[in-house]
Design a protein that fits this description.
Number of strands: 16
CATH architecture of the largest domain: 3-Layer(bba) Sandwich
CATH class of the largest domain: Alpha Beta
Number of helices: 13
Low-confidence stretches: none
Radius of gyration: 22 Å
Helix content: 25-40%
CATH topology of the largest domain: FAD/NAD(P)-binding domain
CATH superfamily of the largest domain: FAD/NAD(P)-binding domain
């Protein structure tokens, strides 16, 4: 089957939905919003802490936010990208509010701002401790009521379409690669349909699920990055995987592990060993509010030093009712496993959390493949550099969605559908035994990445990961070529591709910088 849409948006989080809503204002284009699961299961919903924007002009300004972002990114951030996000943030906050998103306010009507690690001022807007879920709710309501947007739930994008599918040899040196849409797996027929588009947008989220423990949902398998890479798009910064310092330690819950928001440390939470001893003073003068890479490595080191399964976050010294008010979901979650956070320490561990790299894009959000845009966590805008500043990701998504919407709307009338694209060859079957191998291989990818490509790395570990991933790659590609595509095998392919990219780019960086820390290249 062949479908045609002016805009094909792959991914239904804050980036994909805000882009779709912005281009829908033209009221003349057909827009498809393709989600691999349901619209409410995007990674956006897991963002607890908040969204960063300069709003209190009496205390804060753009220069402070820019400086904090550059410092957190270890001065690897692109200044133009940082300035674009920071200066456009207030306008996009107003857009979110206009779409129905609610942020907590004080009695005087001003935003109730939090402060998080690496920020010099209080500039984090939030909705209790489930800001991402509130943003997702507000945008979903707007999308569902928009007559120009068709939502395709449980549709899995297998590959994006370029000249390669017309028999043209495409390499990384090909200067004029174009995207004509995507091949998408239909859940009802289990057939791969052809979706032709004038503009295609990757908004597929992150890569956390390729690690054994992550704050991300299972769907965060790096699909967009892998598809774009296979189509010969430029991918950068993959060595910079952010590990959130504090997810709830619960061996029965690893995908996703429950996030203990950084806002809790901004609120006054103190990191301690289980015996009550503080330790962050040994690592950074900012103590528990140091940037995430420093805190994650400190926790990792203390756990190894003392043979611990976890460390602890302490908010028992804070007012109990205030804690329950600010963090109702965290309070309820911990209580459900027998921990009263107003009286007991919260057991926490670091966990794979956010990908700072991804599909390289310009200030308009366009990738190195013409007519293909990338937004949100799957993109590499240059904002985050070597390490993401807390709560900068949600605002990056909406700012770049705005830039991409404006640019693509200005260009779309010059594009046509490519009617020559062949339909997908869906010959082949998969046995039960092969299905079991896929699930086992997914676990193996997680073990490889967490063991060898984690918070602290070495060339020896990275080479070992490379060799094991290479073996999995050969086996999986051979299987993929002889079976009909399923969501499971496509995700496995993508996980292996992304693991390879992280490993290769980590090996290429001969220094410890930002989130990439190698014992072979210690910081000077």
């Amino acid at each position: 089957m062949v479908e045609k849409y002016d805009f094909l948006v792959i991914g239904g989080g804050v980036a994909g939905m805000s882009f779709a809503l912005k281009v829908a204002r033209a009221q003349k284009y057909r827009i498809a919003l393709c989600c691999k699961t349901t619209l409410d299961e995007a990674n956006t919903t897991k963002a607890q802490g908040g969204i960063a924007s300069v709003t209190n002009l009496q205390l804060d300004d753009f220069d402070k936010h820019i400086h904090d972002t550059m410092v957190a990114g270890d001065w690897l951030s692109d200044p133009a990208a940082v300035e674009q996000v920071v200066k456009n943030a207030p306008h996009e906050i107003a857009e979110l509010v206009n779409w129905g998103v609610n942020f907590d306010k004080k009695t005087d009507g001003s935003f109730d701002l939090h402060r998080e690690g690496g920020h010099s001022e209080f500039r984090i807007l939030h909705h209790a401790d489930d800001t991402g879920a509130e943003i997702q709710r507000g945008l979903m309501e707007a999308v569902k009521h928009n007559p120009f947007i068709t939502v395709l739930e449980n549709h899995f994008a297998v590959e994006i379409i370029t000249q390669h599918h017309l028999g043209v040899r495409v390499t990384r040196r090909t200067p004029d690669i174009e995207c004509y849409g995507a091949y998408i797996l239909n859940p009802n027929t289990q057939k791969v349909d052809t979706y032709l588009s004038k503009v295609t947008v990757m908004a597929t989220g992150g890569t956390g699920a390729i690690y054994a423990t992550t704050s991300n949902p299972d769907i965060a398998t790096g699909d967009g990055i892998a598809m774009a890479y296979r189509a010969k798009a430029r991918v950068e910064g993959m060595e910079f995987v952010q590990f959130h310092p504090t997810v709830l330690y619960n061996p029965d819950e690893t995908h996703p592990a429950y996030l203990i928001t950084e806002a809790m440390r901004g609120y006054g939470g103190i990191l301690r060993l289980p015996n009550g001893e503080e330790f962050m003073q040994k690592y950074d003068e900012r103590l528990s509010l140091a940037p995430r890479d420093i805190v994650a490595r400190a926790i990792d080191n203390e756990m190894k030093l003392h043979g611990l399964d976890h460390v602890c976050l302490d908010v028992t010294h804070k007012n109990a009712e205030e804690t329950k008010h600010h963090f109702p979901n965290i309070y309820a979650k911990c209580l459900s496993i027998g921990i009263d956070i107003t009286k007991e320490y919260i057991p926490v561990v670091p966990s794979a959390h956010y990908m700072c790299g991804g599909i390289k894009v310009n200030l308009d959000g366009e990738s190195t493949i013409h007519r293909l845009y990338a937004l949100g966590e799957c993109s590499c805008t240059g904002l985050h550099g070597g390490n993401r500043l807390a709560s900068n990701s949600l605002i990056e998504a909406v700012v770049y969605a705005d830039a991409a919407a404006k640019h693509s709307l200005s260009m779309i009338e010059t594009y046509d559908f490519n009617e020559q694209i062949p339909e997908w060859n869906d010959e082949g079957t998969m046995s039960v035994e092969e299905q079991v191998l896929i699930s086992q291989d997914e676990k193996e990818v997680g073990q490889i990445m967490s063991t060898y490509v984690g918070i602290v790395r070495s060339d020896l570990r990275l080479h070992r990961a490379w060799e094991r991933l290479d073996l999995l790659y050969e086996e999986t590609e051979a299987l993929f070529k002889r079976v009909c595509p399923t969501k499971d095998i496509c995700e496995l392919r993508n996980m292996i591709n992304v693991g390879y990219l992280i490993t290769r780019q980590a090996l290429e960086r001969k220094e410890s910088r930002g989130l990439h820390y190698s014992i072979d290249y210690p910081r000077k």
